[in-house]
Amino acid sequence: MEQESRELRRVGLKVTHPRMRILQLFEEDGERHFTAEDIYKRLLADQEDIGLATVYRVLTQFEAAGILIKHNFEGGQAVYELDRGRHHDHMIDVDTGKVIEFVSEEIERLQREIAAKHGYVLEDHSLVLYVRAKRPK
Amino acid sequence: MEQESRELRRVGLKVTHPRMRILQLFEEDGERHFTAEDIYKRLLADQEDIGLATVYRVLTQFEAAGILIKHNFEGGQAVYELDRGRHHDHMIDVDTGKVIEFVSEEIERLQREIAAKHGYVLEDHSLVLYVRAKRPK
DNA sequence: ATCAGTGCAAAAGGTTTGCAACCGA
DNA sequence: TCGGTTGCAAACCTTTTGCACTGAT
Q1: Could you tell me the distance in Å between the CA of residue A22 and the C1' of nucleotide C16?
Q2: Using one digit for the tens of pLDDT, what is the confidence trace for A75-88?
């Protein structure tokens, strides 16, 4: 509560009800990756009267402020997660949709090398592994 | 011409005018990566009377048939390229939009290792490097 | 009183689909 | 012939935008 409003002020955004509720959602334990609609539905379920357009606007502002990272995984809907400062990539279980985070310093290094080899500097990258459990449930 | 109709029959698709023209576009030298709209505009410029919906339908069929690969790079529009059987990843020059292909057996191996380490088998992956020329023009 | 922030509805952008006409094996 | 294919328009889905209203300073 206190923490969230400090966070909002820190990035220069007014502390409003929709912003607080959405930020809290991301900072709760449990799910870390949400689409705009996920958030909209959760708020609806909590009796909140927050429009979908507002959800989109807040997500965009949070992304611009560096609070959230936006991912364009397959499937049309953008997915957002808190930017906790530790870069990582994602693995998606194609059967369950579960998102697993991972870090590989070696892959990061290879990417920079490959870009350099072609005369470029790496600005950003997107790596998603689509995986299936070894022993299907 | 002959080659294209054989290709179409091989994958079990009737040889029709729209399918031929679109397949030819991909097999021409030069550009390898097209959006549906790129194709639609090229066909228009060639006086072809092929609807955008048909372009989408043909692209979807070609993808299902394994002739094309579909990429969901950032920016809303899906990009298609011929599946020449040699897997590769992509680098995109963020200034010019240019697409560069590359292969890194080492990254491929690391990806499989990471998936395995988490108890999964790698089914597919998507890797895109966003790069900027070392010495800006 | 002011002005950012909000909800709603409409618009936008990319892609898909229903349908009647058409065409290729 | 006749079922697959196509063009057109309408529908769809996600995201953005216009606008009048609200609410905090």
Answers
A1: 32
A2: 789 999 999 999 99
With tokens 């990254």, the residue in question is B107
Whether A107 and chain B come into contact, CB under 8 Å, resolves to: yes
pLDDT digits 0-9 by tens, A39-72: 999 999 999 999 999 999 999 999 999 999 999 9
Q: Give the integer Cα–Cα distance in Å for A132 and B114.
A: 13
Ordered by start, the domain boundaries in chain B are 2-82, 89-131
Which tokens in the block code for residue B52? 């955008």
Q: Chain A: give the shortest CA distance to residue B60, in Å.
A: 15
Task: Give the pTM.
Answer: 0.89
Q: In this structure, how many other beta carbons lie within 10 angstroms of the beta carbon of residue B117?
A: 10
Copy the structure tokens of residue B105. 């057996």
Query: Which listed CATH number (3.40.50.300, 3.30.1490.190, 3.20.20.150, 3.40.50.2300) goes with A89-131?
Result: 3.30.1490.190
Decide: helix, strand or coil at residue B70. strand
Q: Choose among B77, B28, B29: nearest CA to B52.
A: B77
Architecture of the domain defined by B2-82 = Orthogonal Bundle (1.10)
Q: What's the CA A50/C1' C6 distance, rounded, in angstroms?
A: 8
pLDDT tens digits, residue range B4-37? 999 999 999 999 999 999 999 999 978 899 999 9
| Relative orientation angle of helices B105-117 and A105-117, to the nearest 10 degrees | 160
Q: Is B98 on the interface with A (CB under 8 A)?
A: no
Q: How many residues does chain A have?
A: 137
